Amino acid sequence: MAHQFTIHQTISGVTIDRFAELTADISLHEAVCRRIPGENLEILESKIVGDIYTMRREYNLDVHIPEIAKKLLKNAFRLKRSDIANLKNLTSTIELGANLPLEAKAERKVVGNGNQLDITLVWTVKVKVPLIGGMLEKHAEGEIRKFSQLEIDIVEDELKKHL
Asked: Are the beta carbons of 3 and 134 closer than 8 angstroms?
């Protein structure tokens, strides 16, 4: 059975209307992507078609993972990430893949008003490794929470640069 968890975050000082305007600019998404810690970033796709923005990228993350996972990964953690965002509804789907039998998906929704943005990510993580899958799923939650917080902080900084 998959592990599910939710992340809530608020960004103050940014209106929902301004957020919608800024997210329609590919350069904002790419600037955020380039600031996330990692090595060998490759942006494989970054395009807007109608109201849909798609970004596919790969990079190596420096994550703290259990020793058994390090052996499986041989100390290399290549993350494959796909984001498909509906710019009109301010929703998106995130899919992560790695050098593990990992399935990780999130549904993200941004709502707000004239003072703040409220971001919600509902993650589902499944690691298909007998006996230790549950342990790795809980560990993956910690890493996803850490990187989600970092990414939201970067988004907030990039948004405020454009206000």
From this structure: yes
Query: Can you tell me the mean pLDDT for 77-91?
Result: 93
Cα distance between the two ends of the chain: 43
Q: What is the torsion angle, in degrees rounded to the nearest 10, for the CA atoms of residue 13, residue 153, residue 79 and residue 130?
A: -100
User: HSE of 48 in the Cβ direction (CA atoms, 13 Å)?
Assistant: 13
- For residue 53, pLDDT beyond 80: yes
Q: Which of 128, 41, 130 is closest to 78 using CA atoms?
A: 41
Per-residue pLDDT band at 71 (split at 50, 70, 90): low
Contacts of 27 (CB under 8 A, 6+ apart): none
- Can you point out the beta strands (E) in the chain? 3-12, 39-49, 52-60, 78-86, 91-97, 102-112, 116-127
Residue 65 · residue 143 · CB < 8 Å: yes
Closest CA to 119 of 159, 78, 68: 159
pTM metric for this prediction: 0.86
The one-letter amino acid at 85: A
Hunting for tokens 């350069």 — which residue is that?
27
Query: For residue range 10-39, what is the model confidence (pLDDT) as tens digits?
Result: 999 999 999 999 999 999 999 999 999 877
